[in-house]
Amino acid sequence: MDLDLGQNVLSGPLPAEIGQLSKMQYLSLGINNLTGPVPPELGNLNKLISLSFSSNNFNGTLPTQLGMLTYLQQLYIDSSGVSGPIPQELANLKALQILWASDNGFTGMLPEFFGTLTELKDLRLQGTSLEGPIPRSFGALTKLENLRIGDLSKEDSTLDFLENQTSLSILSLRNCQVSGEIPERIGTFAKLQYLDLSFNKLTGQIPSSFQKFSLLQNLYLGNNSLSGDLPSNIISPKLIALDVSFNPISGNLPPNFAKVGFSMNVLGTSINANSLLDRKAIGMLQCLQNECTNQVQASSFSIKCGGMEQTSSSGIKFDNDSESLGAASLYTNSNDQWAVSNTGNFISNPNGPQYIVTTETQITNTLDSELYKTARISPSSLRYYGLGLENGKYNVELHFAEITMDDSQSWKGLGRRLFDIYIQGERVVQDFNIQKEAGGSKRALIKTFEANVTNTIIEIHFFWAGKGTCCIPFQSTYGPLVSAVHVYQASNAGFSAKRDKKRVGKLVGIAVGSAAGFLIMSSIFYLWWINDKSGHMQVHTDSPRKG
């Protein structure tokens, strides 16, 4: 009746004879190395209440026979390897309460019939190849407590389906091509604790009803086209992170922006923060306006991501980047040469809100093992900026070592970290897997790219697009990881003086610190865009495995 084979290293195909276990109610095969097609004989287990085969290496489509499991309440198939259209027969699963299906190769449109599965409480569909729009039929899913959809392509979606989902505590629709305005009624969803609508095409103003949230802790609205003034009381009582970056929002910072434990990112907005200009902020502002007090513009910078200052075996000094960042933060180093911006929250992380990881294990394939023993991580979006650079052609050296996931022979070696890398707004690597390219964990890897600097600034963006496992070896193990950054000017020969095709202009900024012994960074970089930025939109949170 109950068979749990999860967290092993079972390999080979799942035998068809599994379908003879006719009394089975709970079957867990998650976190293994099973291959081949998912056997249609699973459809014979018509007493199943819970089925998990997540985090495997199956191939092919989901068998239509799964639609025969009419008593099924929980279906965990995230990172299982399946692909193709989601079978219409799953519409028969009327008792289904939990469906985790992220990080699979699903194709076709997001199924309309999901809206008929009215018992659903938890639905997660991120990092697939599904197409929008989000069907209006989803409005019938009034029992939803956790909805995470991400990375939809093609047709735009709207938020019209969000009508009576007042039980929602987590709502993430990141990178779903969502357009139109944010409905005021979302501010009446009193149980919301986490709201992520970032990397979309939203317009209009931030609803005034958002000032009434009583339980909301994380609010992510970055990378949209929201306008108007930032509501003055947007920082509700329990809010600890607010991201409105890269929106043409104006107005003033909220009066309580500096409260202890709160982080805020207003990078790329035109919010007025003149009242906050202290001496350090003025220096950074001048630098970002290409008026650095340094007499000579920089031609290189090096960062020890997540760690203390170090000098490499080749004599390169990597700057200290050990500052503790929040879930919506920006930090600028002491000489205003570079800045780092982080947004996102690791939901369900048993280790708490950590954005730096460390290891004591020796790193191989390098003479600079210490350089790779710390790294910055992000659940969503991690950006590094080089400031006040001479214009010209640059080499961008990115240093990596997978120090969180291992490559042991146990189930803990079955995790996969995937993320994208953008330089100057252009994606240079998609679905980057450090462990695979380096030939294992705890092995150093350097990737080098070329970039043109035309406005004294370079941007390096590490971006999670919903891919990879979420929870091996523990919950919330996913997203970008980087050990060090080294950028230096190459030969000027052949440098194109043409301005960056994606974005030009100047960035203007201030950094805001709080009291209480540690720095909570908030920043404004005003950024004028002259071309469409739609090519640089992707990502979301996670799709954890069964308990």
UniProtKB/TrEMBL annotation:
The keyword Cell cycle does not apply. It is found in: Cell membrane; Membrane. Pfam families: LRR_1 (PF00560), LRR_8 (PF13855), Malectin (PF11721). Residues 301-485 form the Malectin domain. InterPro entries: Leu-rich_rpt, LRR_dom_sf, LRR_Rcpt-Like_S/T_Kinase, Malectin_dom. SUPFAM superfamilies: L domain-like (SSF52058). It is a single-pass type I membrane protein. GO terms for cellular component: plasma membrane. Its EC number is 2.7.11.1. One of its GO terms (molecular function) is ATP binding. Keywords: ATP-binding, Cell membrane, Glycoprotein, Kinase, Leucine-rich repeat, Membrane, Nucleotide-binding, Phosphoprotein, Receptor, Repeat, Serine/threonine-protein kinase, Signal, Transferase, Transmembrane, Transmembrane helix. It catalyses: L-threonyl-[protein] + ATP = O-phospho-L-threonyl-[protein] + ADP + H(+); L-seryl-[protein] + ATP = O-phospho-L-seryl-[protein] + ADP + H(+). PANTHER family: LEUCINE-RICH REPEAT-CONTAINING PROTEIN DDB_G0281931-RELATED (PTHR48006), MALECTIN DOMAIN-CONTAINING PROTEIN (PTHR48006:SF98). This is non-specific serine/threonine protein kinase. It comes from Quercus rubra. The lineage of its organism: Eukaryota, Viridiplantae, Streptophyta, Embryophyta, Tracheophyta.
